[in-house]
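Data deposition worksheet. Section B asks for the primary sequence of the deposited chain exactly as it was used as input, without tags or linkers unless they were present during the calculation. Section C holds the resulting structure in token form. Section D is free text for depositor observations; keep each observation to a single sentence. Incomplete worksheets are returned to the depositor.
Section A, Depositor: J.P.
Section B:
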Amino acid sequence: MQYKKYNAWGVLLRLYHWCFAISIIVLVATGFYIANPLGVTDIETNVSFIMANIRYIHFVAAFVFTASVFVRLYLLLFGNRQERFWDFLPITPRNIKNFFSTLLYYHYLSDKHDSRLGHNTLAGCLYILTLFVAIIQALTGFYMLYPENQTWQKLGLDLFGTQQQARFLHHMLMWYFILFALIHLYIVIWNDIKNPEGLISSIFNGKKFMPADKF
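Section C:
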């Protein structure tokens, strides 16, 4: 079968992907320290003030994370064809069929691989879920970040309850991103090994290889 190279992802989506991924790594690492600090030590109480520095890094990464979410929401509506939500959500007969065929393929119940220039429908559904979780994560984070702001406190109290309840939810949702990242890495590597489409390289150069007779 002959393959041709096609443009799949725009520059903005690739920039979003890496900002989102790197910010998650930084947020998880700093989040673990904030939740379980070393304690009051000579290092903590001297001029270095390690907790303040860790929190500062956490907050900067949180703003990058939030900006990335806004960029992806914009691309869901105004990105290229593969980046818009109607290309990969199960809202058309073609996408519904792709959802179930992808499930069978990933569970080794079918050898049929539906080549798509954009996301398959199963991945698209998980990405939308991840964006929703990211919005909740950002809201709980800003609720805790601005205890003196009446607007944030009223919104946070209405949505999440007390600060401690929001902190617990924030910590639990962190595990969603850890599991998502591990599963995401496994699936993209698995796909890259099984199919000659250049899935991993496409997030760097924006191009994928598709069967010439289908595209």
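Section D:
The beta strands are 3-7, 207-211.
The domain at 3-211 is CATH 1.20.950.20 (Fumarate Reductase Cytochrome B subunit).
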